[in-house]
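Researcher: Good morning. I'm working through a list of sequences from a screen, and I'd like to move beyond sequence-only analysis. For each chain I'm collecting a predicted structure so we can compare shapes side by side. This is the next one on the list. No need for commentary yet; just the structure.
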Amino acid sequence: FSMPVLVADVGTHLTRVGWGVDSQPSHIYRTATLDENGQEVKNPIQRGLVQDWDAMEALWQDMFHKRLGSREEGAAMPAVVLADSPSVLERERERTAELLFEKFQIPAYFVGSQAVFSVYSAGRVSSLVCDLGHGTTHCMAVHEGFAYPHTVERMELGGQDADAYLTAQLAERNAGLGLEKTPGVVRALKERDVRVAKDLAQESLRLRTAAAVAAAATTGTAAASSAAAATPAAAAA
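Model: Good morning. Structure tokens for this chain:
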């Protein structure tokens, strides 16, 4: 099989794409169409499902022509392997195949399960896969390299919901500073500082105690400053 093979994983937030001969993606970027100035215009995928097929076509156009240079003079279009989400509808798979074959004239196309690819990447053939994405969360059983569709559990809960919750928490503490207008900042804070608590009750108690101590220290400092300011005035009187 001598033709080049493009491997793509197009998610709600990020697109990962690279060549089959490489062990890592060559490009990782936001799933969004760009204007002539390179600014993000529209994300065609919401909660794992395509909502705008014109924008999706523009996304593939950008991938083939700009990101990978597949249409250089004399270059053949590659075969495409697409990592597929278990929530994708059959008609959506068919429309993607129609777009790739008829619009971009690719020579071959294969749709593979994200869960199976994840198991293979870990050096296994059987596992229970939990995929926490930006827009959705999926759990699925994989046995001997086969995904079992009847085991799929899907929740419309993902990283974007964690971003929204963190933004709301910061706003409640008057620390939002307009962060709802700059989601990238909140996402960076989440990825840098947020983690899963092993014992939520104990950790919540520790944080409340630390907050109370900090508040008491702040109040004490303010009171001491007020007293110090009042002393010279009393002496002058």
